[in-house]
Amino acid sequence: MILRRRLLLSVLGLYLCGTAIAQTSQQVNGAVPLKKIRVTLLGTASGPRVHVGVAGISTLVEAGSERFLFDAGRGFMQRSVQAGFSMDGVTKLFLTHLHSDHVVDIPDLMLTPWSAAPGRKVPLEVWGPDGTRDMMRHLEEAFAFDIHVRRDVDENFSPDGIRVIAHDIREGKVYERNGVTVTALLVTHGLVKPSYGYRVDYARRSVALSGDTSPSDNLVAFCKGVDVLIHEAIDLDVLRKLVPSQGPFEAIVARHTTPEQAAGIFSRVSPRLAVFSHSPGTAAIVDQTKRSYSGRVEMGEDLMVIDIGDEVRVTRTAAEVRPR
Ligand SMILES: [Zn+2]
Ligand SMILES: [Zn+2]
Question: Shortest CA distance to 299 belongs to which of 307, 311, 289?
Fold first, then answer.
């Protein structure tokens, strides 16, 4: 009898121990906790200019079983691997607009995860403004030699894995699966029309990305009360040094958002957290915003992770939540 009880206790002990190990490994692997949205800023640089040490604009959103990449700026793939994702971990890409700094590394996403063993086996799906389908078709043509050789001649990589399914979208709900919805909303980016922001909703949590925009009433209408708003901004002093002549300077200012204007947008949207990305990352941007906005504001940086649950938690190094 005592022996049986001991056996039972040790089996129970093993079971409990196993559960503890499972929980620990989930934490270690950095899987998204149930009913939360996790955002990883892969690249936060502003504009097309090369910034050594800062990747181009690119944001990864995980919600339930879904994982999305928003924009594919320079160097996002290295950041993605650095953040703990496998190379083929992203197969769904949403584009805010077709300015080069937002799309320049699409070939990396299209080709590298497919052509590095074991190789992506499922198509890459891309949503974006008018012109997205054409751009993706032309990219397939541009890389026709590599695709043909690796698929048909030499390495026999998956024909499905190099397929691209591209959508030219309209404003409204553009994706709905597994309890996750992605909504595209028109923003105002000068003559670059259409330009979109996006909102992701899952389990009553939400995050919105402004894309490139001047202050947008439409963004406010779509994003009021969102948990986290990731917004672009310019620093006028930094811009003045880069673009000294008045005409071009004013043209750039007119299609982006100043910190003061961002404060106005944040006041109207009232997010639990506002984060700047695709901005120069200067302290002045946050300081100027805080002059007329009292809510929580953070300056985004590459590999910052934002967990959206009962609390909105910011971790500045992805390795802390998703060790490699
Ligand atoms: Zn941009
Ligand atoms: Zn732009």
Answer: 289
